[in-house]
Amino acid sequence: MSEANPDAVSAGIVVIGDEILSGRTRDINVQQIAEFLAPLGIGLSEVRIVSDDQDAIVEAVRALSARCTYVFTTGGIGPTHDDITADAVAAAFGRWIDVRDDAREILEHWYAKTKTEITPARLRMARIPEGAVLVENPVTGAPGFQIENVFVLAGVPKIARGMLEDIAPRLTRGKVTHSVTVRHENAREGDLAEALGQMQADYPSVSLGSYPWFKEAEDGSITRGVALVARGTDEAVLKTIESALQALATDAR
Amino acid sequence: MSEANPDAVSAGIVVIGDEILSGRTRDINVQQIAEFLAPLGIGLSEVRIVSDDQDAIVEAVRALSARCTYVFTTGGIGPTHDDITADAVAAAFGRWIDVRDDAREILEHWYAKTKTEITPARLRMARIPEGAVLVENPVTGAPGFQIENVFVLAGVPKIARGMLEDIAPRLTRGKVTHSVTVRHENAREGDLAEALGQMQADYPSVSLGSYPWFKEAEDGSITRGVALVARGTDEAVLKTIESALQALATDAR
Question: What separation in angstroms does the CA of A133 have from each of A67, A94, A151, B129?
Answer without folding.
Answer: 21, 16, 9, 49
